[in-house]
Amino acid sequence: MAIVHRNLPDSELHEPKGVSAAAADQVYVTDGSGSGTFRPYDNDLNAFSTADGGKVYVSDGAGSGTLQDYDKEPKGISSASADQVYVADGSGSGAWSDFSTVPPTFAGLMSQNDSTLSISAASDSTLKTNSDYVPLNNTSMWSVEAGENITSSASSGQFTVVAGGTYQISLCAAFHADVKGRVGFIFGDGTDFETKRTIVDVDTAETAVVMSVMIPNVSATTVYGVYVAAEGATDLTVQTATFTIQRLS
Hints:
Elements: E1 26-30, E2 36-40, E3 55-59, E4 65-69, E5 84-88, E6 94-98, E7 105-111, E8 115-119, E9 134-135, E10 143-148, E11 150-153, E12 158-161, E13 165-177, E14 181-188, E15 198-202, E16 207-218, E17 223-230, E18 234-247
Antiparallel strand pairs: 1-2, 3-4, 5-6, 7-10, 7-18, 8-18, 9-17, 11-12, 12-17, 13-16, 13-18, 14-15, 14-17
């Protein structure tokens, strides 16, 4: 009398097909065509049984991989220079960059020693010609009072920006001249001037000038200083001045 398979006692049930030749810890993997074979669960992942703590499985993109130490530091830190920061690119990645590329950046120069500059008369009395302007600077006029990620040069009275961006540049100064006349002030590098001129009437009494301008799209390594021109020859004495530059974005 035939016995229905479902009624067979457990002791009489047969093992899966191919089990007699299968190695220990293998599993039966179907092939999608009504059959299959016994295979290792995962040749690469088998190493987990003997892997040291803290290891992770890293795929190689070709169907395999290896167990490696888990790097708890951010991506690429092994080759990053000291004081760099990781800057995201907005597309799911990024790169290590100098801290100077990240706001805020700031520097300041200050003069407090009644520095006198002898200025020749401008060829253009309207003070609109760039070549008439000379640096607002002489020996020991400026001192570096503060600085962060912008190069300040007290000897030349200039700043060099390390990273491009939008900058705020300001000058606040008190001065007088030995003759009455007009004096123009401007920010720039001596050739290319980024702002409109500030022209003030100067007398032998103290005069104040305040300038502040925001300049977008500044390129890295741009050099900025204060430049002056006078409609007539004069000895311009700067009693005190503060010249600052700050990156906004």
